[in-house]
What we know:
Elements: E1 2-4, E2 11-13, H1 33-45, H2 51-60, H3 62-70, H4 80-97, H5 108-115, H6 117-135, H7 143-171, H8 176-198, H9 204-236
Antiparallel strand pairs: 1-2
Helix pairs in contact: 3-7, 3-8, 4-6, 4-7, 6-7, 6-9, 7-8, 8-9
Amino acid sequence: MKHICKNCSHQFAAADKFCPNCGQSAHTERLQFSHILHDFFHAFFHADKGFFLLVKKLALNPGSIALHYVNGQRKRYFNPFSFLLIIAAIFLFVNLHFNALDPLNNDPKGQFLEKYSNLILISSLPVLAAISWMIFKRSGKNYSECLVLCCYLLGEMYLFFSLVCSPLILQFREKYQLIIIVYAGVWLLYFVYGAVVFFQEKSWKGILKAVAVIVLFQFMTGMLGQGMYYLIKAFSHS
């Protein structure tokens, strides 16, 4: 007796536990809420490639994790693009729900940038990847591989901001500018550390290239935010 895979319609022997064509389980029961809970906790707490394990590894070896992923070790790590989207949701909830962004900001443009900070985060990803690819072009990494690195690094740093900087801002609102300066310094060091390992340029030249990426990135994202502000403002008045 043959079984037909519900995922790819491939026929396989009844004794097989998995479809030999796509790898899906041969026995797929009707979806229940317990299955959804299992998949949710599996995605976050899986011992080999869970979300929280990735957060821990990215804190210690960001460049190595991204390098392993682009070199083909993809079943070992949480998907970088899914990771960034989850972090973006956490960032939006924490920083807007608890009003953890600049509490003293009365400038309409600044308030706009804070309101759409999540959109700016996602939009800044291709910008950071493009700058990294151009400056480290001789490394042989292509643009898509640079996207992986930037997903991991941006995601980890925005998580750091949400879980560390935001509570500090809520507790010490008058120290907002100082906290942001410290965060910017941590982001610079973290990116440099990840980039020189990923692009395998562990030299002063590699460090200077990584610093140049961040300087250009901050300038470009500032321009991106300004452009979004005036574009949405123009549409809102049309």
